[in-house]
Each structure stands twice: as C-alpha cells, then as structure tokens.
Amino acid sequence: MPLSDLTDWVSIGVDLVVGLIIGGVLAYFxxxxxxxxxSLKDFYISEIRDVKVEFNELCKQISIGKMNAVVMKETFxxxxxxxxxxQYSVNNHLKLDLNIVSFIESTQGFITSADEINEQYxxxxxxxxxxxxxxxxxxxxxxxxxxxxxxxRINDVD
Length: 158
Fold this sequence. Notes:
Blueprint (H helix, E strand, L loop, with lengths): L2 H61 L5 H26 L6 H12 L2 H5 L10 H27 L2
Helix pairs in contact: 1-2, 1-5, 2-3, 3-5
C-alpha cells in the first residue's frame, strides 16, 4: 500500500472522528444549554405572573371593600418582598435591569396614605372614595403593563 493511500485513509479517519466529536458536542451541549435557559426563564415568568395575579386580586378586594387595613398592609408587604426577591434573581442571573417592584411599593404608598385608610384603619372593611378607586385602577394598569414588558424582556434574553 503506497504511503499516499495510507495518509488518505488516516485523513478520512481523523475527519470522521473529529466530525463525530463535534456533532456529539453540538447535539448534546447546545440543546441542553438552551433547555436550561428556557426552564429558568419559564420559572421567572411563572413567578412574576403569580405575583401579578395576587396583586390584581388584592386591588380587586380593596376596590370592592372586602379588605381591612391591617391585612392590606401585610399583603402589600409580602408581595413586595416576594417580587423584590424574584426581581433580584432575574437581574442577577439574566443580566437585566428590571424594576417592577417599585410599582407595588408606589401603589402601597398611595393607598396607605389615602384619607379613607387613615379614617377607617380600625374598621372591618375599607370603603374607598371613587377618586381613590380610579387612581388604584390606574396604578394597577401601569403595574400590569410593566409586568408584561418585563416578561417580554426576560423572553428576549439569549
């Protein structure tokens, strides 16, 4: 067997081995990385959606007069803590700069400083004035828009 035939066969063998290794790496590691990234994004999105649902339910209960001041303040505080933890993790792991917790904190500050809250603090249920309800709905809409924007930004991360 001439030397050139042997080098051709060795070259083909090396090409096959290298091709298999590269193919294996691409077939295993790339999809795994993409899947892990998608799972993390889905987790964050789910957590943010849960907070959104809870926030909207809180606003509804306040608006229809089914909440007292103590429970309201505690619920706002718990939502802020939860969303702050989620936001910190999203910003840290996905290298984003989300700031949606400020909308909950702003709404909490608005509602807890409303005259109705101070006047009815010891009441079983809070009854809000129409103007306060309108402002609460506007803040709720702003929060919801920013949550949707945050979810879109999370999805856009590579």
